[in-house]
Design brief:
Number of helices of chain A: 3
CATH superfamily of the largest domain in chain B: Cytochrome C3
Radius of gyration of chain B: 21 Å
Shape of chain B: elongated
Strand content of chain A: under 5%
Largest sheet of chain A: none
Order of helices and strands of chain B: HEEHHHHHHEEHHHH
Oligomer: heterodimer
Structural class of chain A: mainly alpha
Structural class of chain B: mainly alpha
Distance between the termini of chain A: 79 Å
Largest sheet of chain B: 2 strands, antiparallel
Strand order of the largest sheet of chain B: 1-2
Number of strands of chain B: 4
Chain lengths: 100, 255
């Protein structure tokens, strides 16, 4: 009985220690998936680019709210990826529009 | 008689105002360039003095032989403008920014005995290494007086494109021809190829170039000289705009 109480207590102590790491792992995976599209961004359909822009916006909120020390680098990179997607959409839309 | 005087005046005015004819000389007030060994060197002084340490010296030419611009200015999150990135000692020790490589494994670490290798306030630090490097790389007329694009193309230097993944530069060499703002100046030619070899698309788009061909506003030399557009790199890091021919290939070189 005592042993199982100890194990449960230990879990209560350790799980919070690993939680930020696990959370970071999850946003890093999302980050990798989104930013990997940067290289092929020009060949992606506009709808996909819009989706990626929205996903980036959501992920930025997650990363900014994280306590991970790497967040400043990852927000910098994610903003760059997000802005590239938005730029290509903008470029396509301008191309289709007659010049003022 | 009056007509010929007007014509003579017009011809003289054109010769003075059109530098491409060779009579106008330098129309732009270009900053004097530092010695080749110091071109592209920066002193990072964000909180150094407050922390009682000398500003950190950073040499672009030294790092460029090992890593592409993309590694630092995309993967590691360094902004293009000096002192614009919030680099702290804790970050470095956590493996961010300089600490991604300066960790005692890839290269010398962020430890007490190595402080003055970076925090020395000396913009000409490691100039001896420069002489050796310059002797074995293709020559150029300005900046470091090294033709970095050619050195990369010929494989004399092999900077890493990524420190995290096995990524290779995009195969994208769309060449843009940009009409000069002044009559008599040959067009500027922008090849994507040599730029994507060093940079990520997102380094330039859309922060520096959010412009569409033929709808470009303010893409003028005076803005470039104010560190906008090409001036973000081609004033003090990549070959300087003193090398007119670098961008306007049909112009006469001035040096």
């Amino acid at each position: 009985m005592k042993k199982s109480v100890c194990i449960i207590l230990l879990l209560f102590v350790f799980i919070p220690c690993f939680a930020p790491y696990a959370a970071a792992q999850s946003w890093i995976e999302d980050f990798d998936r989104i930013c990997a599209q940067g290289e092929i961004a020009d060949s992606l359909p506009t709808a996909t680019l819009r989706e990626l822009t929205l996903e980036s916006d959501k992920l930025l909120v997650v990363i900014e709210g994280s306590t991970d020390p790497r967040k400043k680098v990852f927000t910098f990179r994610l903003k760059k990826c997000r802005n590239l997607f938005a730029y290509i959409i903008d470029l396509r839309e301008t191309k289709d529009r007659p010049a003022p | 008689m009056k007509q010929s005087r007007v014509l003579l005046f017009a011809v003289l005015a054109a010769l003075i105002l059109l530098p491409d004819t060779g009579f106008g000389g330098n129309t732009f007030e270009l900053w004097p360039l530092p010695p080749p060994a110091e071109y592209g060197n920066i002193l990072i002084e964000r909180t150094s003095h407050k922390s009682n340490v000398m500003p950190a010296t950073f040499s672009h030419w030294l790092h460029r032989t090992k890593y592409s611009c993309r590694v630092c200015h995309f993967e590691l999150g360094f902004a293009f403008n000096v002192n614009a990135t919030e680099i702290t000692e804790t970050d470095n020790k956590n493996g961010l920014f300089c600490g991604a490589c300066h960790n005692g494994q890839i290269t010398f670490g962020h430890t007490a005995e190595n402080c003055d290798k970076c925090h020395n306030g000396d913009i000409s630090y490691s100039k001896e290494k420069f002489a050796e490097l310059r002797s074995r790389l293709p020559k150029a007329a300005f900046g470091n007086e090294i033709n970095w694009a050619e050195a990369l193309k010929k494989g004399i230097i092999k900077p890493k494109y990524s420190i995290y993944k096995d990524e290779k530069p995009l195969e994208f060499d769309k060449i843009l021809e940009l009409r000069a703002e002044w009559g008599g100046i040959s067009p500027a030619v922008f090849p994507h190829g040599p730029h994507v070899a060093w940079l990520d698309c997102s380094n330039c788009h859309p922060d520096i170039f959010n412009i569409k061909k033929k709808t470009t506003k303010h893409f003028e030399m005076r803005y470039i000289m104010d560190k906008k557009f090409c001036g973000a790199c081609h004033l003090s890091i990549a070959f300087p705009i003193d090398d007119c021919k670098g961008c306007h290939p049909k112009m006469r070189r001035t040096k």
